[in-house]
Amino acid sequence: MELPAEAKAVAGKNSLNRHAARHGLLAGTAVVVRALQRDTALQQLIADQYGIVVSENELKWVALRPGPKEFDFAPGDAFVDFATKNKLLIRGHNFVWHNSVPSWLLRDPGSYDVRQLLAEHIQTVGARSRGKMNSWDVGNEAILPKDGREDGLRKSFWFEHIGPDYIDLAFRTARAVDPTAKLTYNEYGMEYDNEDESERRKQILALLRRIQQNKVPLDAVGIQAHIKANATSAIGKGLSDFMEAIRQMGLEIYLTELDVNEDDITSNDIATRDHEIAQTYRHFLDVALANPAVKLVLTWGTSDRSTWLNGGPTHHRKQPNRPQRSLPFDPAYKPTETFFAMRDSFDTRGKVHGA
């Protein structure tokens, strides 16, 4: 497959990353290595449009650890090789996450010193990529207020078998093995002005303060930004105040997994859907990019040809027979209205900050 003329027309000076770079930003995308390897057009599109990439799955525990004494580095190495060849910066995702624990460890955790296992995993994986990573998602989704703890921590496998200081352990180990990568705490559910997300923002800020008080190395906070078209809650003051609190801590902010779930758009007309999705992107980015601490904007995927949303985040999609149009490029790799909304938001950010 060759890139369509429409994609070629928005390369170079017209690309997302070139517009982003003019205003102190990096534009990026998440990739799936297996899909990337068999699609030269997608490789070219990513090289044309972005300055930084992150792998969706290849550097997670389940992908890397087929057995207790085994590592499978082949897909992760292919990801790093692709980025290096195309002069793209790289994000690592992730060192510790409740939803990526290998089956062999879940089956028999008592056979292992889980604290030591976590530290050795980070040391081994971090050493392999040392000096190559712009940033690492070290802790991912550690907060879950409904689990009922006063500190808001999720009662995850890592929490249950190591204790609440597993987060500190992960960050300290990551810094020791790779002193140059920016260490990031990555989280979801912070964007909307409603009671649930307000509580999550409160608990996340408390976690960040504890990390800093304990003198644990931390450089940035990742806001995943899996948002929705036609959401019942607004994006506004809650997110703005939250981001400013993070900036006041001296931390950078990364928008790490941006996409728009369009299940709540009732129309099946593509032009109508594309417009509502683009407006959702535009509003979110106009709010988020008003904060100068934001340095990266990555979408969770490049093209609607392959988005995790077609499987449904909770596997009960409202529009099961309608593929999502959630990303900057359509299935034929033509730029969508979202592409232009994102680019315009980058340029508007420049006006806000005088860039």
- Uncertain runs are none
Q: Structural class, please?
A: alpha/beta
How many angstroms does the end-to-end distance come to? 38 Å
H-E string: HHEHHEHHEHHEHHEHEEHEHEH
Look at the structure and give the mean pLDDT: 95
The oligomeric state is single chain
Instruction: Please tally the β strands and state the result.
Output: 9
CATH architecture group name: Alpha-Beta Barrel
At CATH level 3, the topology is: TIM Barrel
Shape: globular
Task: Specify the biggest β-sheet.
Answer: 8 strands, parallel, barrel
How helical, in percent, are the residues?
40-55%
Number of helices: 14
What is the CATH top level name?
A: Alpha Beta
Measured on Cα atoms, how large is the radius of gyration? 20 Å
User: How is the largest sheet built, in terms of strand order?
Assistant: 1-2-3-4-5-6-8-9
CATH superfamily: Glycosidases
Q: Report the β-strand fraction as a percent range.
A: 15-25%
Tally of discrete structural domains: 1
